[in-house]
């Protein structure tokens, strides 16, 4: 059985609301330290973070939330984020290009971000799995692996088709075969859903209502 502390260590404690303030980010960092989460994830405009993160990692996003940015723009955004202290970057692919059958474009844009934010920066690739067919999910995961990403991630949490599903996480985990991590995010608002995602193969979770989930309640938001 997963313990509270074990689940917390899988969490990117997330605040991506457009109304977020520096004070909100400081509160997020303090809560992450209290809860023992792996990281906080904030918008790039909130970097650098003026808070003592101690052992808590700092993650941000690029091409967020639509993914309809050029590869060069995403790469520049990622490079700037790393320069401002980000340990991890979660990038959104252009899912329309993938759905049009252009997986080469997907791989190329991921590679551009990877080159702009090389290791040890952790690169996660958001594929909006709820909007994709199984075949498209597999293609996106293969492109991410070929381009040198570290994780594939289900969702932004902002797409109208929805967030993470057990089926998508299982398929993503089977495709990357342990060579990449799998982050489940979007719509994970209670302990049962969070642990189901872990059982399906998720190695990281994106949560905004982290305390409520860890306490066994139901969270609002991301």
Automatic annotation (TrEMBL):
Record EC number: 4.1.2.4
Keyword Cytoplasm: yes
UniProt keyword Lyase, yes or no: yes
Catalytic residues in the record: 90 (proton donor/acceptor), 153 (schiff-base intermediate with acetaldehyde), 183 (proton donor/acceptor)
Keywords recorded for this protein, A-Z: Cytoplasm, Lyase, Schiff base
SMART domains assigned to the protein according to its UniProt record, in alphabetical order: DeoC
Swiss-Prot/TrEMBL catalytic activity: 2-deoxy-D-ribose 5-phosphate = D-glyceraldehyde 3-phosphate + acetaldehyde
Similarity comment: Belongs to the DeoC/FbaB aldolase family. DeoC type 1 subfamily.
Name of the protein in its database record: Deoxyribose-phosphate aldolase
Organism: Propioniciclava soli
Lineage: Bacteria, Bacillati, Actinomycetota, Actinomycetes, Propionibacteriales
Name of the coding gene: deoC
